[in-house]
Amino acid sequence: MSDAGEKWQVARRRKGAVSKSKSLQLASTSSCCQEQVDVMKTVKRIRDTVSELVCEKFWPEWKDQLLVARSTSLSAPPENKDTEDLTVHKENGRLCKELGCVCYGLGSFSSCVSARYQLAMLLLLLDAGQIPLKECYVYDPAFSSGERDVLRELGLTVLTENEEGKRLTTRPTLFYLMHCGKALYNNLLWKNWSVQCLPLMIIIGNSFSGMWDRMIEREFKRDYRYISQAVSVCEEKQLPCPSHLIDVFSDTSVITFPTSSLNELAKSTWTEPPEPQYEHCPDLEIILSETQS
């Protein structure tokens, strides 16, 4: 497909529309045609897309917003005071914490143009945030074995378990969750629902306030209680999205959790937070692990 044809694919949807979880869209095809992946050819296409994105006018603002969030996250006190649980490196003779990264729900980037652009942006963000490639953990049940080989060739670490977003943060971490289902965000917040863990997190993904606006309030509070509570205490910075990439980066924000805002909530907010169940959500927009399905 020509570059012009690919850009038409990317921009084909109405401006402002938000895609559903790529994992759900691609689950039915991931086991058939996705296995035939030319690893080195795909790696080259991704790197070419990186070169394209770095020349886009909106990229410097994405980079600046990440660096601001990175500075805030690195200054947050860790949940575990033992420095052995943190990744450190020497800079000018001083020990400095590094940012880690987790990416869920990227989608089948070998066949989906939008997913390839999102992977290319992830690589740019890792470089800008000084995050070692091996410290970026990626997972999507839609990945084929060939796509997992591509990710390893790029230097990323491929997770083998479907965590459903339930990953505890004990170090400053960027979570890259592009157009993922609400349950995944909610699970991630639940697992880190404390004044100690949330400030360590940077989320680049769908706007929480946008989720709030698109749902009935009582249903949102009932089904996605952690997102609904986070809306009032998180800090969102909307990221720019050019019209020709509206299907790729629309509704994307940098989300952080200032300690000062979290401390304004009642202490009961943090007491034994119940694990989300989603019994009222027939369209969950997340692929459950085999043990839960």
UniProtKB/TrEMBL annotation:
Domain SRR1-like, chain residue ranges per copy: 100-255
Any single Pfam family the record assigns to this protein: SRR1
Taxonomy, superkingdom: Eukaryota
Cellular component aspect of the GO annotation: cytoplasm; nucleus
PANTHER family: SRR1-LIKE PROTEIN
Annotated family: Belongs to the SRR1 family.
Protein name: SRR1-like protein SRR1 domain-containing protein
Organism of this sequence: Channa argus
